[in-house]
Design goal:
This protein is of the alpha/beta class. Helices cover 38% and strands 12% of the residues. Helix 9 links the parallel strand 11 and strand 12.
Length: 354
């Protein structure tokens, strides 16, 4: 007889990943980082520009990370424009607003350019041992937010939906999971959530009619979503990443999203409204985040890890959806006709050869 503490012999428990994503100091792993990566509560690592010198070094680093933890998620912000962590040896990607300019001239061409760019970004990142980029941005370019600005595809929700969908189809074709950010929209606040706690004063109806539209229109292509460290004060007193209403009632319930929810970095000033690091961890996980990011402050990352360990926070099998689905060597990639076509398309947009 199977007891409550036993598993049937014909059932195997689904593998899980730890819920903490952290960062690294430099170009190679240090001994304490190897130990951290082996911790069962650590399921992800995000790379920044300081972790990249050239493609060979990056491949060595990602291989070393996987030697410590074969299933760990390795992520990067490779959006394009001013948010492109990997540059030397990678194709220079345009800011996403560039596709809106193309749209004004030829919408069909703009959609194809966005698809090619999504494929190229994903293929180059995957070829160096990384699972996914936190992309694309689904925020609107309202003219208010400098931190979003030309990272957005457009100011019109339908145009954002169409161009972002093409970009994500390219990512999927390359074998990369997608992450839409910053739910339900960061583009209509002036404050930068890295430095302040932005407050959006619009009504729920206004947000639904504008910023929420790309997330609703792209939901079937989204594998992950990252909520904004923004308080929508007429909707909820908590910022979106700590809000059961936004993450469960709207994102999961109304939009039917079944993928992974990542917190934005809990070290950012926009997360401070929830309290100290332990309170931020509890608020994010309690609201429905599957993975929490704690970056650029090792002391706070260790504090979050100790808190997770103390409370025996279980891992998540849902996170496995973000693992890379295809990989090849950089040499094989650059010899392919598809890379040649996509590279030419993107270079024509930026005017910069890699």
């Amino acid at each position: 007889m199977t007891t409550a503490t036993q598993q049937p012999l014909n059932e195997v428990a689904a593998p899980t990943l730890g819920v903490l994503m952290l960062d690294l100091r430099g170009l190679t792993l240090e001994d304490d980082e190897r130990e951290l990566l082996r911790h069962p509560q650590v399921g992800g690592v995000i790379l920044f520009a300081r972790n990249f010198a050239d493609p060979g070094q990056l491949q060595a680093l990602t291989a070393d990370i996987r030697a410590c933890n074969p299933h760990v998620l390795i992520a990067v912000d490779q959006e394009g424009g001013r948010v492109q962590r990997l540059q030397k040896g990678f194709t220079r990607l345009p800011p996403m607003l560039r596709f809106s300019r193309s749209w004004d001239e030829d919408p069909v061409l703009a959609v194809e350019q966005a698809r090619q760019c999504g494929w190229l970004m994903a293929a180059e990142v995957l070829a160096h041992g990384i699972d996914f980029s936190f992309a694309p941005v689904l925020d609107l370019d309202s003219g208010l937010s400098q931190v979003i600005g030309n990272r957005a595809f457009a100011s019109d929700p339908q145009r954002v939906t169409t161009l972002a969908s093409a970009f994500m189809k390219g990512m999927h074709e390359a074998g990369m999971a997608t992450t839409g950010k910053h739910f339900p929209g960061h583009g209509n606040v002036v404050a930068d959530s890295h430095l302040d706690i932005p407050v959006d004063t619009r009504s729920l109806e206004q947000i639904r009619a504008q910023d929420l539209q790309p997330f609703a229109g792209c939901v079937d292509l989204l594998d992950g979503v990252m909520p904004a460290h923004v308080i929508y004060e007429k909707v909820d007193a908590n910022c979106a990443g700590f809000s059961d209403y936004w993450l469960n009632t709207v994102l999961r319930g109304e939009l039917g999203f079944e993928g992974v929810i990542f917190s934005d970095d809990l070290v950012m000033a926009g997360a401070a409204a929830a309290g100290g690091m332990e309170q931020r961890v509890d608020a994010a996980l309690g609201a429905g985040c599957d993975m929490i990011l704690v970056c650029n402050d090792r002391a706070l990352a260790l504090q979050a890890l100790a808190h997770l360990e103390r409370h025996s926070v279980p891992g998540s099998s849902r996170l496995l959806r973000m693992q890379r689905r295809r990989t090849w060597s950089p040499e094989q990639l650059r010899e392919s006709e598809q890379w040649g076509r996509a590279h030419s398309t993107v270079v024509a947009l930026t005017g910069e050869a890699s």
